[in-house]
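Schema walk-through. Below, the input block comes first and the output block second. Nothing else is stored per chain. Lengths vary across the set, and this one has 499 residues.
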Amino acid sequence: MGARARQRLVVVSNRLPFVFKRGKGGRWRIERGSGGLVSALLPVLRNRGGSWIGWPGAAETGPDLERAVTAAGAEAGFALKPVTLDARAVHEFYQGFSNEIIWPLFHGLASLCNFEPSYWSTYKEVNRKFAQVVMEDSAASDFIWVHDYHLMGVAAELRGLGCRAKAGFFLHIPFPPPDVFFILPWRLTLLHSLLQYDLLGFQTMRDRRNFIQCLRELVTDVTVQGKGQVVTVATDHRTVRVGGFPISIDYNAFMRQAATDDVARRAQELHRLLPRRKLVLGVDRLDYTKGIPHRLQAFRAALERYPDLRERMSLIQVVVPSREDIPQYHQLKTRIDQLVGQINSSYVRPGGWVPVWYVYDSLSRNDLLAYYRAADIALITPLRDGMNLVAKEYCACSIEEECVLILSEFAGAAAQLQNGALLVNPHDIEGVADTLHRAFTMSDEERRARMRRMRRSIRESDIFWWVDSFLRAAIAKDLSAFPQPESHVIEAVPDYVPI
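--- output ---
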């Protein structure tokens, strides 16, 4: 452990872990970023020493922004290093290549891609800019941990600059199978860029398998050695470790906050507003990968097929605003609004029963946890998802263990939670409707047994386990001695294939 503690960690992500916005009087307002990744990595950086490199979120530069970034880093206990991007780079790199090409393609929606050649040029340019900042702020003894699809080319740029430090990469979204990945015009260059990392981490074994299959079909002389969570992949020029590391949440933090009096009071208020019925919850960012229209259609089908659900079940659908200025997202919101209106107009009853309780807004953390506590059933049905942490957060907050999780088999979390969740194909509208009825009629004993299994699994492999397992895989001299995950994870993840 002593050697690990002396090795600095350099974290690289598209955004810094703090949000910088202009406040009143033109001063920078600093807010800590949300999410489990920030919570997990901040103490690691404080303990090991190191820095976090990323874009500060503003398409402007200046001494006052640099001072704000430095001050935020001093308060956090480690250095923050900004990568400055102008408006053109933000548009073509982030909105363009990252979110008009990689995001839809890696989620299996190639028809939504915009393969604009200039996006690829800017993507390489920005990855090079990130690499230059990393070079200025790292030494050969450091470990560089790069995150997500925005920065797949950073290691290749680092090697071109003469960097000898070990570098790892974790992909937070799915990795597609060959027949989808091959649609990408720059597929071979991107694969070779990924091979410049020393450790590649994917959310599930299925994603890891897809990556290795793409290598075998595009790169000559690929050999794979080892079994279990991490394997070694060798090509003509590189040897890389490749593993499946299912990301998780700060289980104890969610559980403790869900148990507070304030959250319990808000959950009770929801039940008073929507009395004498089971509450079904969907929580999603506005995005076409989340399957929200499919979910609404399935809920409507459940009411049509099972009259006993009417006036005894309501769906609370929370949609967090996102990218409304993009036409596809605006059209998606319009479709959701129309479906909610159609369902409610068809089934609303005098006396207060409203089938769909629609919330289009960002929620405070306490409000979100109150929805988790109040919901009898969570309906989480993305068309494709790298992991989906909402499913894990819901389980952590279900402290009475009397709730049911209905989960898309195409969410990465399905591999770990399949022994407790009711898995569904979100495209099967009638199948999801039938599963809703099954959840509604499930016995208390089965509910508790299923939820208990999922909560135990999430508790034993939380976000801190995830960070530790990735870093151990990066530094272990012998993978045969690398500690494997708890048995419930290793059994569930490798063999799960949707039916």
